[in-house]
Amino acid sequence: MSTKPFVTLGIESSCDETGIGIYSSEAGLLSHTLFSQVEIHAEYGGVVPEIASRDHIQRAIPLIKESLKISNLTRQDLTGIAYTQGPGLAGALLVGSSIAQSLAWGLDIPAIGVHHMEGHLLAPLLAQIKPQFPFVALLVSGGHTLLVEVGGIGDYKILGESLDDAVGEAFDKTAKILGLGYPGGPALAKLAVEGEQGRFNFPRPMTDRPGLDFSFSGLKTFARNTLTKHPDEKANIAKAFEVAATETLMIKCRRALEQTGFSTLVVAGGVSANTSLRQVLDQMGEKLKVDVHYPEHEFCTDNGAMIALAGHYRLMAGQANDGYEIAIRPRWNLEELQAI
Ligand code: KG4
Ligand code: ZN
User: Fold this and answer.
1) Cα-to-centroid distance, 306 and ligand 2 (Å)
2) Is 196 helix (H, G, I), strand (E, B) or coil?
């Protein structure tokens, strides 16, 4: 008789996406479903936390039902539940955590709180060709810009981070200055395609001194000042911003690879969807003989599959929450995680 596979349901609700994923020890990712609140928040020009929480409440359970249906499973087939415990918006996290803990309690199965950035970091492991440990990870999202030395799952040492705006935030703020909609990252990238490279030269912040930290808040000011002088050159400004941001990231990745001696780079988080960033990093990888891995496009931005996967590894290693109390960690340092 064959043993039952271990099946983990993942719930992501840290910001403005409700994401559900189901991962099986036998068949890998069985399904993932997503509802993005982007259009709801667009009219406010950014995420409104209270609206985000209320929408997660409405979406999560129907999405879980849909995911189970797509996977040809019932609730009783689940053997573990993973949810984003932090970092993120407190109210939004509470929704995922409450649903996960209640469901786990009702089914009498273990639950595990997952670090959102660990989810992003492990998302490339959902791809066909998986990165091998150890590697350097560049995590680039709306809330974080991190360079991490990764020895294995949970073995994380932060090599550098942004001292002010995250790079995704810098994309979003610059897009706003250019009058583009929310979320700004993809809109700015689209406009930059029409821009002329080299028309404006923006700085590469903090690349002229040693170290692996970043600072992106100055770039938006540079964009604003350039726009005041050249109001008709939005595409050229978008291009200059994108080139400066992506080259800065590349320079720091190169440094981190040299410093660690590692030959694999993993790039994840919303900004890893950016085509220019991928081009710049692929070129660097070719020169340095470094393998560069990205998540599949749908797993770059927030999703439930990455949470299911990260939780799955931890549950399989015997880790689980102590009980079913609803605990969230809106602020949570990646280095505090337990290695498995
Ligand atoms: O990882 P993510 O979905 O959410 C957070 O954890 O923050 O990342 C969202 C961020 C936003 O700032 C968004 O503008 C940016 O990723 N982003 C992009 C692109 N797609 C998403 N930035 C630049 N180019 C893109 N193609
Ligand atoms: Zn994220």
Assistant:
1) 10
2) coil
